[in-house]
Each structure stands twice: as structure tokens, then as C-alpha cells.
Amino acid sequence: MMTSDSQVRAIFDRIAPVYDQLNDWLSLGQHRVWKQMTLKWCEAKAGDVCLDLCCGSGDMALLLGRQVGASGRVYGVDFAPQLLAIAQERCDRQYPKPDICWVEADALNLPFTDNFFDAATMSYGLRNVMDIPGCLQELHRVLKPGASAAILDFHRPSQPYGRAFQQWYLDNIVVPVAQQLGLREEYAYIAPSLERFPNGLRQVTLARLAGFAIATHYPIASGMMGVLVVTKA
């Protein structure tokens, strides 16, 4: 059964208090490396105005904030208010405090004018939107001509042994750890979401249909992760 937008929002609000801790445990800290790769591929630079879409608890937005510096600005957008509250608290503890504006909004209806952003990132969000083509079109709309976005997410590996290992890891590591925290149902949704998520080649096709002039998908972590990098003409 397809998960509704409100159900996904409720899931992320419930996991908000342990979201960062679980990411560290379940990726063995590797999610930090993958986010650094994503930051590099979006090509954000000092003074840029950047978007971190589906910003969650703010990891990537904070990285962008350091990248663009005091002369730049970052907008962290998410539809889960509990995660945004955690992101704001983390930002308030930074010194110097980056210029980040936290915005509760739908990835399919962004409250920004056309051609607004110099660069964008999105981490673990595209897989959870209800309309992936629509999300890519909206991202294309708000980017300036020549701007790039880098989109990081989980994927199903193309090789059978990789798929088998990933499913074993989800069933025997991820869900049991989440169950100990009372979040079994919230993390059990990952496997079906992976089955629905387009593979890298399909993502490239969808990005081009959304209007991006350049779209490249980079598999990482033996195909269990991937980064879609897109550039607007």
C-alpha cells in the first residue's frame, strides 16, 4: 500500500528525537562522508543562496551554511515540524551561527520565486515524496540557470548479492535497533520505499523530463546509495 504524504510526515515527526543517532549507528558514520560528497557535487560557493530540500534535522543545511559563509544564505525546507525544531536548536548552538532560514513547506509546492537558488541539496528526501517527477520539476523551477543540485538517497543495488545483503541488513540490524527504541513500524517502511524508488538510470530520465540540461547518477556504497547530480540550462 502506498504511504500517504501525511503518514510520511507523521513518521518523521515520531523519529525526530533519535534521527541523528540512528543515522550514525545504522550507517557506521558513513552518512557523513556521503553528505560531504553531495555538498561537493552541488558546487555551492561562498556568497551563494542555497536550498537544502527535505532538510530533516539540518546536517546538510549546516554544511551548506559553512560552505557559503557569512555572505551567503541557506534555506532548510522540510514538512516535518519536529525535525525543523531540532534543526533550529542545532543551528543556534553553532558559532559563528550560519545564516539559515528554516521553512516548513511541501517539496511539491515551494514558497520561492523562479530562478531563486544558486545551488541545492536533498538528502534522503526524494524517495519519500509522493510525486518524484513533480518534485524534480519544482526543484528545476527554483534553481537559477546554470545552478546544480545534488540528491543523495538509498537505492536498491542492481546486483543480486548487493540486494540480498541490503535486505539482510534492514531485517536484522535496522529494524531490530529501531524496535528497541519503539520505532519498528517507522523504520520498517524503508524496504517498501526502496522497491518503489526509481533506479539511477530512471532518475536521470526523470530529471531530463523535468527540464534539467545535465543529469548524472553516481552509485556509491556498492549501489546501496546514490547521488543524482542535475544542472539547469
Structure description:
With 233 residues, the protein is an alpha/beta fold. It has one domain (5-231): Rossmann fold (3-Layer(aba) Sandwich). It is built from ten helices and seven strands. Strands 3-2-1-4-5-7-6 form a seven-stranded mixed beta sheet, with helices on both faces. A hairpin with a 4-residue loop joins strand 6 (214-220) and strand 7. It is globular and about 45 Å long. The N and C termini lie far apart (37 Å).
CATH architecture: 3-Layer(aba) Sandwich
SS-derived structural category: alpha/beta
As residue ranges, the low-confidence spans are none
CATH superfamily: Vaccinia Virus protein VP39
**How would you characterize the largest beta sheet?**
7 strands, mixed
Helix coverage percent of residues?
40-55%
Q: Could you tell me the mean pLDDT?
A: 89
Overall tally of structural domains: 1
Number of helices: 10
